[in-house]
Structure formats: structure tokens, C-alpha cells
Design a protein that fits this description.
single chain, 10 helices
Length: 194
């Protein structure tokens, strides 16, 4: 029973729509009506600028960190995996936004930061290289997500963490399906476009 209540709490932590709240209370704008319409850090940077975008990024990242810290206090490695999926589900399918949400990249980064900072650092370097070269944040996010389970395998991470990395990567890449379609069609906006 305690575990179920904790997972509910973690879902609601993930479901708090940071980009929507920052947009509404800092800029007086509904982020869902601008740019890609996505309630995530990339769209926040593009629409609101660096300061509010950075705030959204850090708040979404903290969701993942909080989920892992709470789960560690309550259960073992497999419960951490379950809690990680739960917080990402909350972020991506927020009850407060009609079960819509972001792509899960920042929240997923918070999870990986709490589990293996070195792997996150390498994935972040990959992300930055891809974005600098191509100017596509979505492509950087997809490739960085894809790298996570490979890095975990290379660093011989325990089975629960490997499963977490694999499923989280699939989840993030799946959530980027519209971006993948736009990349293939040549209509995906670059980071330099507002």
C-alpha cells in the first residue's frame, strides 16, 4: 500500500506542468499555443527565452531527481525503475493537461543524473555535439537518448539500471515521433529559429 501511494505521489510530481506554469505566471502566455505546442524545455527556450527556458529545464530535471531520491528511501533498485517510469509518465501524460505533456528528456536526464552522473555527462556531450553540428535540438535529444542504454551496457551497469536506460530511451524516442517526421520532411525548426 505504501509503495502505491508513493508511486501516486511521484506521478503527480511528474505531472506538474512546469513549462505551462512558468509561461502563464512569468510571461502571461499559454505555451501550448506557441511554437511546437509542446510543454517542454526546448519550446520554453524558443518561446520564452533563455531565463524562463532554463528555469523550465531545471524544474523538469528536478522531477527525475526527486523521483529517484524518494524511491531509494522506499524500495530497492527495481522500485527505482518503476518510480522512474512513473515520473516520466506523469511528465509526458499530465493529468493537469488532459494527459498531454512534454517529451521527457529533461526529466529523464534527472533520473540518469541520480543513477549515473558519468553516463549523463557523456550523453550530454553527445547531445551538445549533435545540436551544434545540426542545429536540431530534437535530433540531439533522440541520439543522446539512444546512447544511454549503450553507455550503460558499456559501463556494465546493473540489470535494473540497464532496463531503465533501455525503456526510458525507447519512451523518449517514441515521444519524439512528430519531430522525427518533421526531420524527415525537412520542416523541423532549428534551434536558431524562434
Amino acid at each position: 500500500m505504501k509503495e502505491i501511494l508513493v508511486l501516486l505521489l511521484i506521478y503527480f510530481i511528474g505531472a506538474v506542468p512546469m513549462a505551462y506554469l512558468v509561461g502563464k505566471y512569468v510571461k502571461g502566455m499559454d505555451i501550448r499555443k506557441y511554437g511546437s505546442g509542446n510543454v517542454g524545455a526546448t519550446n520554453a527556450f524558443r518561446i520564452f527565452g533563455t531565463g524562463p527556458g532554463l528555469a523550465v529545464l531545471m524544474l523538469d530535471l528536478l522531477k527525475g531527481v526527486a523521483a529517484v531520491l524518494i524511491a531509494r528511501y522506499v524500495g530497492g533498485p527495481w522500485f527505482i525503475v518503476l518510480a522512474s517510469f512513473t515520473v516520466m509518465a506523469g511528465h509526458n501524460y499530465s493529468i493537469f493537461l488532459g494527459f498531454k505533456g512534454g517529451r521527457g528528456v529533461a526529466t529523464g536526464a534527472g533520473i540518469i543524473l541520480s543513477i549515473s552522473p558519468l553516463i549523463l555527462l557523456i550523453a550530454l556531450i553527445i547531445f551538445v555535439i549533435i545540436v551544434v553540428v545540426t542545429k536540431y535540438v530534437s535530433l540531439g535529444s533522440i541520439i543522446a537518448a539512444f546512447s544511454i542504454p549503450l553507455l550503460m551496457l558499456g559501463f556494465k551497469q546493473p540489470a535494473p539500471e540497464l532496463v531503465l536506460g533501455l525503456v526510458a530511451a525507447i519512451f523518449v524516442i517514441y515521444r519524439h515521433k512528430p519531430n522525427i517526421e518533421r526531420l524527415l520532411n525537412g520542416t523541423e525548426p532549428k534551434i536558431t529559429e524562434r
